[in-house]
Amino acid sequence: MSDINEENIINTELEAIQNTESDLINNYKEYYVYEYYIEESNEVFYVGKGKGNRAWKDVRNPECEKIKAEYEWKVRIVEEGITEDEALSIERDLIEKYRASGVMLTNIMPGGVKPTEKEAIGYVKYLSFLVEKGVLQMSLVDISNLLLLNQSTVWQIVNSEHYTDIDPLLPENINEIIHKYHVNSYTDDQIRVGNIKYILDLIEKDVLKLSQAQLAEYYEVTPSNVSSIKKGKTHANVPLLIPDNVGDIFKRFDVFYVSEEEKIRGMIMFIIRLRNEGILRMTNRDIGRVLEVSDYLVAEFNRTNEDRKYVAKEYRPDAEIMAKLIPYFVVK
């Protein structure tokens, strides 16, 4: 064999090896991180990782599926063309970031979890053990969704004797699992939802004075989260839960406390009522001048209750303001 032919063969083999390595790298970096979000509000409610069409198929946990059934939602790819380890890391960081900012994700697993087949079998055995002992209320569907296993696989593990050589294995996130599925316990997100429900009930009873937007800000969630909770669209199974700091909430949103802004609006209401009853003869400009507010604000309270931008209760002016009103009283 000539040197030229031998060199050609070597080059061909090297090229084949390089192509194979390139294919392996491309296949290796076939993972992506995705998130589900509500189309109308852009709220993210689930974060995951996968490859192929994983993001668009299969079911997730019950809370996630409930939101998917009730809202128009979409899939957003956060990062793609990455390895599985990279995807796990990004998934975990993203879940932590969202939860730290108050986003109520439906994820149960903390993210970044990659159990081996043996570990998954051990987890299933341990969880079914806790179910048998009455510690957890989990169905096989719950377990399969939690561990991202096929339901038939979970059934086989629980009901067959094929895996007797594998011992039950305590999941790393057992704290979250017990909070989620224990009969008398709730996760942090569920406690927050229960607290919000409790406060909403007090608002309905006129015991506390705050808006849904203020409530959302207080609990670091979005106003649409509060609206969904109020309408029972999400977390319908979570009862009203009294906040640990309920006393502080009562002090902060005392229904009898009247702010300066509320006093102004209440005085406008008071003066307009006297004008409507023929007791005062004043224009909107006169009222604005006496109270040192804009004519536009005064005009707002001439609208009907349904069309009015502001809601206010009458507030009787103090002696100083009443003195300024004297020239406008109608003498009969």
UniProtKB/TrEMBL annotation:
InterPro entries: GIY-YIG_endonuc. Residues 29-108 form the GIY-YIG domain. This is GIY-YIG domain-containing protein.
